[in-house]
Amino acid sequence: MTRAAKYLDFIHTGPNTLAGKYLRMFWQPVFCSHELGPGRAVPIRILEEDLTLYRGDSGSPHVIGFRCAHRRTQLSIGWVEGDCLRCFYHGWKYDGSGQCVEQPAEPKPFADKVSIPSYPVTEYLGLIFAYLGKGNPPPLPRYPKLESSDISLDAVRLDRICNYFNNIDNSLDNAHVRFVHGRHRETAGDEIVKGDPMISVAESEWGIKREVRYPNGKAITAYFGMPNINYLNGQVVDPEIKRADLLVFKVPVDDEHHIHFEVRSIPFTGERAREWLQRRREKRAREAANRAVLVEEVLRGRLHLNDIDPNRTDYVMVEDEIAQTGQGKIPDRKHEHLGRSDTGVILLRQIWQRELRALAEGQPTKQWTYRPDMIPTYPDS
Ligand code: FES
Ligand SMILES: [Fe+2]
């Protein structure tokens, strides 16, 4: 691989890859908070690493290694005890730092000599974040508008069968909206912006600011936060909401899978929000069971988007998923033909390439900072 090609390898994100090292310099969401109750453990795979996520009885989440140090069974099948996790097979017990603290069947325990990996964890905006990098984690970026007591938050997770960079590229791509989301926009009666937009992009302290101007004079402002965050005001399939601020994280699972985590601002609170979220989550759980199947059927030519119920809560996501998985799990970018409408994609890749080069050469990478006045906008009418 030539040096330039190496810096362009955004695809592979395992622990020993350049992009993997870069992404590990940032906190990454790994799970939705509401999907992990106290006393539960689950296996997770993030950045090509298998890990165990559990929530202690106290409510604190922990991320430790995937396998028990004894005879390597999967730790997520074990039992949570207090803030520790006990292995299912022979009962070795680990605390949240990965330290083994009990070996029940050993006449002369050597637990103090046994530990497995562990990573810092925190919760924010309805998501569980882990820091999988080396050394002390950076401060967790905060988004004050989403902390407002006037709104509720709906944290969503969508598993997508393609490389995360298909979705990263999509963050800077407004030309797709007219085609990919045309049917939804018609159903929702969203005709505020129409036609093919002109996209202007500029590097910012956080990543890329983009302004999207439509032929009817309407304009949208949105922000991309390095390395894998999109902050926009976007479509939600729901008659009570229609549009919401969306903070999106595109997190690699491995080369051919990623998770699209999305935090949505819901413009009401209290009992109304609780009931709305419950209804929404029940419907979402039913839909999630067949989303990948529907997308696969479309790609195989057995269905078309028009055959899918436009009232699914994830309909906009299905539209994006079809387009992105349709590029191939790992697209052949050598044979792309980029144009003026790809100006955001081009800038994004240039910035990524620059940062990977700096990392590879031992130079400082840019310190990205979210500023609270970076608020996405969408015209009201
Ligand atoms: S494999 Fe975990 S205690 Fe034996
Ligand atoms: Fe989209």
Strand order of the largest sheet: 12-18-17-16-15-14-13
Q: Which ions, cofactors or small ligands are bound in this entry?
A: FE2/S2 (inorganic) cluster, fe (ii) ion
Helix-strand makeup class: alpha+beta
- Strand segment tally: 18
**Nearest-angstrom radius of gyration?**
22 Å
In the CATH scheme, what's the topology name of the largest domain? Naphthalene 1,2-dioxygenase Alpha Subunit, Chain A, domain 1
Number of domains: 2
- The first-level CATH class name of the largest domain: Alpha Beta
Instruction: Give the overall shape.
Output: globular
Cα separation of the termini = 50 Å
Give the mean pLDDT. Answer: 94
Strand content: 25-35%
What is the correct CATH architecture of the largest domain?
A: Alpha-Beta Complex
Treating each run of at least 4 consecutive H or I residues as one helix, how many helices?
8
Low-confidence stretches: none
Largest β sheet strand count, sense and barrel closure: 7 strands, antiparallel
Strand and helix order:
HHEEEEEEEEEEEEHHHEEEEEEHHH
Helix content: 10-25%
What does it look like?
The longest helix is centred in the C-terminal third of the chain and has 30 residues, at 270-299. The chain has two domains: 37-123, Rieske Iron-sulfur Protein (3-layer Sandwich); 144-360, Naphthalene 1,2-dioxygenase Alpha Subunit, Chain A, domain 1 (Alpha-Beta Complex). It is globular, with a radius of gyration of 22 Å. The mean pLDDT is 94. The protein is 24% helix and 27% strand. The protein has helices at residues 3-7, 18-23, 164-171, 177-180, 182-188, 270-299, 315-326, 343-360, and strands spanning 28-32, 41-46, 49-55, 61-65, 79-81, 84-86, 93-94, 100-102, 118-119, 121-124, 127-130, 152-160, 198-203, 207-213, 219-225, 229-235, 243-254, 257-266. It has a seven-stranded antiparallel beta sheet. The structure holds FE2/S2 (inorganic) cluster and fe (ii) ion. Fe (ii) ion (FE2) is lined by residues 176, 180-181, 320. FE2/S2 (inorganic) cluster binds at residues 68, 70-71, 73, 87, 89-92.
